[in-house]
Structures are given as structure tokens and as C-alpha cells.
Amino acid sequence: MASDATDWRTTETRQHTTAGDSQTSGPAHVPALTLLAHPDPDRVGERLALTALSFGRAIQLSRLEPAFSRPQDSAQHEPLPLAERSISRQPIGLSGTGLAGEVQVDAQATRTEVLVEGEVVAGRRVLSAAEVERGVVLQLGRRVAALLHPMLLPPPEPAPQYGLVGDSDAMVGLRHEIAGLAPLNVPVLLRGESGTGKELVARALHDGGSRSQGPYLAVNMATLSPSLAAAELFGAARGAFTGADRKKIGWFQGAHGGTLFLDEIGEMPVEVQAMLLRALENHEIMPVGSVASQKVDVRVIAATDARLEAAIAEGRFRAPLYHRLSGYTLQLPPLRQRREDIGRLLNHFFEQELAQLGAGEQGDDDPIVPPARVIARLARHDWPGNVRELRNVARRLALSHRLPTRQLLTQLEEVLTPTTPSLELHPPATAQAVAKLTPPPRRPNARRRRRKPADVSEDELLAALEAHSYRMRETAEALDLSRIGLYRRLDTSPNVRKAADLGRREIDDALEAADGDVEAAALTLRVSLQGLKRRITALG
Length: 540
Hints:
- By secondary structure, the protein is an alpha+beta fold.
- The protein has helices at residues 129-134, 169-181, 198-207, 229-234, 251-254, 270-282, 308-313, 319-325, 342-357, 372-379, 386-399, 405-416, 431-435, 458-467, 472-479, 483-491, 504-513, 518-525, 529-539, and strands spanning 28-37, 47-49, 59-61, 92-96, 103-106, 114-116, 119-120, 124-127, 136-140, 144-153, 188-191, 216-220, 259-263, 284-285, 294-295, 299-304, 329-331.
């Protein structure tokens, strides 16, 4: 967001509106409330522009007023008040303080329990401009949570959704950029932190352009063996290298007439980068072992979370290739910069996970929704793993949705604490199994005595593997085993498979289901990430 996003009092735009009005003479950022949690999950994401605060007028927020609207389709849906019984008819006051960007929350006259950033407010609480800029989480009663944040008014014209969830300013802007780039037959470089959804954006660029009827292929460069990367990308003639007993079709030939998505482009071997540059500039490739070049019609979309500029300085990435790829760059926003989308994203993933578990088919009219306290806690997290991390937490919530809220919050604190290993995708089978994963305390400087492999039960082993995403070092530490001891225990387990036993088709199916995410595929296959990478390399 812009640095002056919260300075809605000093903007040149003059907004002669009330709290429910959105008529303005030009775009400006104003404070707004977006619903993160509501008993009716369809209402999550509704918002209320607090334009009256810009002119020193207070807003009274209660069960009966004012009305919240849906961002994209407000013309089809009548704005509605919160209409939640745990919120009093006696209003909560929201007002400005006279200082640009500040908002005061007044809970003196209401019987509604009000929490601001997890702390109960019985009187008044002044929120600084910096707090509002980051996004302030409000809990209203037992079942409603909202985010106070800046919002652009009037909003831009709607763009295609492209399967991307969320209506924050950052996501609306990203959709407009996709709409502008999708029809162009040019390379695009996607940049952003890990887990921000680069594969989804690459797919949107393909589906929104003239190549949508052509093939779309995705390859993670980090999974390719340096010695075989050229053959994988550009193909190989028969006899080009040992084991090449027939002609090999590369990714470029397979994507002819369509789009090739190269994820983790910073991991591409330097020797192959020159070949990619030639393919981008001349639309020609040279299969390994061939004496004739081939014309290809492929749009390349690349992605990275690495600092390519540093890689260029270190000689690990070619500057001409970087400049060829970065002519059109899309920067994907991290989740902490679009907190107002967290409620909708969580519900989206939560419903998907419940459907896979069959837990959503309850035969009654009450939807299963995460408790508002849980969602409010998640909205305050900084999400270093971004949307991927949120998806993993949604899976944990779906598996544990019958637990009491207090127990859920306790588990989430463990997951969200930076010093605790992240429970990605596959959480522990039971809370009891998790409790067994903490080794007993040891005296300082005492000689470490590891457990015997035979002392680890099958349930404990499986829970530890899933809790630590099949990472061997963390799993061994959690079970208080040596690495050798863990491998010996794995050899005796009838339920743990080795990556070396996987076939090419099973791996390809898992990668396709995970949208090319090797880490997610490893968790789906229930093998270690390094083991899967070695198996992919071995299979060629």
C-alpha cells in the first residue's frame, strides 16, 4: 500500500458522504471494516467504508446498523447489518481523533464484548495510523471478527477473478495487471515470497490469453538434475547420452502453441540459461545431441522468490536472461499485506478440506465454520509462509474442528510460534500423539541418551512424521531418536514407504495435483522432500 494510505483527512479528494455512502470525486484511501468471521460464512469478506470518520463524524456499530456490502456483487445483494445476537443493540463507537489516520474505538456504552488485537476493551482505545495501516483485528461478541484497515474508494472496475480469492486492494490491483498482461505474447517474471500463489497467477495468465486452448506445462527448476536439465527442457536426440535409447521430447516441445511455466527460475543451471535466452529471443531450441535447431511457439512465464540481482553479482544467473525475463514483472503481495482476505481464504480452504474428509455432509442447516476467536488469532499472525501456510493451517482446523475452541487456540499457538517447527499440510493424527513428541527435559551438560527404535510405537512414528512434514532431522529430534535410529525404525514400519519405491506416474500425478509444488507433492506421497527430489532425478 502507499505510504500515505491512512492519511484520509489530508487527501485532495473530498468525500461528501455518510458512513454508507461511497460517492467520491476521486480515488482515496479511507478506513474500512471487512468481516473476517461471521456465523454465515457467505458474509465473510463483506465490508463497510467508514467515510464519515474523514469528516469528524462518529459511526455507531451495533447489531442493527450500519449495513455491510459485498465487494464485487453489491448490486445483486442488499447490504445487511451484522444481525448477530451476541452483538448488542447498544452501539460501539468509532470516531477520528483529530490526528490523521487515527481511529478511536469506544466500548463504554455497549454490552457487546469488544476485543482489539486480542485484548478486551471496556472503555476507549485509540488506534494509531500505523496500526490501522497494518490492519487492526476487532472481535465483536462471540461470533464476529472484522479487520479495520485502509481501503481505496471508489474501487477500480471489477476484473476477472481468475480463481484468485480475495478482494483486497492488493488483489484487485493484481487482477488488473493479469488482465493487461494475459493477452500479450511476452515473457513474464513473477516475483514474490514463497507461498504467495505464483503458480495460480501463471495459470491465470495462460487462461486469460489467446493461448488458453493450447497446452500449459509447469516445471520446477529446483527438481531438475543439472546434468539433465537441458534434455528435460529442450529434448534430446537418440543416443545423445548414456541411456538415451530413444528420442526425448522436452518441455518446450510439449508446450508448443501454449505456455511453459518455469518455477524457481533462479535454480536453473548457468549452462542452460544461455539456451533459454536463445529460445526466448529467436524462438528456437537445440535438442541435446542434435545438429538442427527447432522452431517453437511457447510463451514462457518464470517465477522466483530469490534475489536474482544478487545471483547475477555472484555469477549464478546471466544478466541478459534476467533482463529478457523481467521486462514484464508482476510482484505478488505477501499475505500480511492483504489481511482483509484472510477470512475468505481460510473459509475457502477449510471448506475444501472438510469436503475431502466428508465432514461437511452433516445433514443439517448449520454450516461448520471456524470459531471467530480462532480466525481473529490467525488474522493477527504475520504469515511468513503466506497463503501456503494458511492452507496448511486450514487443513489442521478441518481435522480438529470438533475440539473445543480453547484447545484449538492452544494448538494454533504451537503452530504459529516461530520457534516451533511448522506443521505443514499433514498435522498430527491426534492431540495425544502430539503430546508424546516433546522429549523429557535434560540436565545441562548431561550425556544425551537416545531412545531405542523399538520403543517408538507405530502411531507415535506416523504422528511425528506428519507433524514435521516428513523431514527426517526434525522427526528424529521430536522422537528423541538418532538419525540412524529413525531410519532403523522406518525400516520396520509397515505403513511408511520410501521415495525410492515410487514410480514415475505416481509422482507425476502428485505433482499435477499439487500444481507443481514439489514440497506439497512430497507430503501428499508421504515421503521426505529430499527423498522425492532424489527419486525424480533418478527417474530422469
